[in-house]
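User: I'm curious whether this sequence folds into something compact or stays loose and floppy. Could you predict its structure so I can see for myself?
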Amino acid sequence: MKHPITKFPVEPYEAITEEFVQRKYYEYNQLYFAGELPPCKFRFNAMSLYYGCLGQYYGYKDIPEIWIDIMTTYEPDWVIREAIIHEMIHCYIDKVMNVKEKTPHGPLFSKIRKHLNKKYNLGLCNCQGRYDYNDEVFAYNIYAVEYSSEKD
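Assistant: Here's the prediction. I'll summarize afterward.
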């Protein structure tokens, strides 16, 4: 199966655990952020039910936290990759650049997302507020259903 945007082969599905997310955070930090991001805590929550999102970044603590939604189907692997990298961009802006944007997905977030897409061909989605993010969650779940039905 290929990622619908980049057309690269998709990594095989792996269960989403704290160890998995920590390992991916470290890997993506090295690959896409030159290892500049600080260590991060991860929490799992039913966020899509309440906030309509796959993840949430909390940088106001000494050690930043990234919350990952447990209600979303993360098969194929690019869905969780996108959720993690999306929150890592927030962490980069906050902790490395020390900038507090007025909107969560403002011009700086957009610039970094576009840079990562261009340099690494990641296919990260453009999200502008909760409405679009709900559409992304919906699209991911629809894609997961289509992907799993192709296996049958």
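Summary: Residues 18-151 form one domain. The two ends are 13 Å apart (CA to CA).
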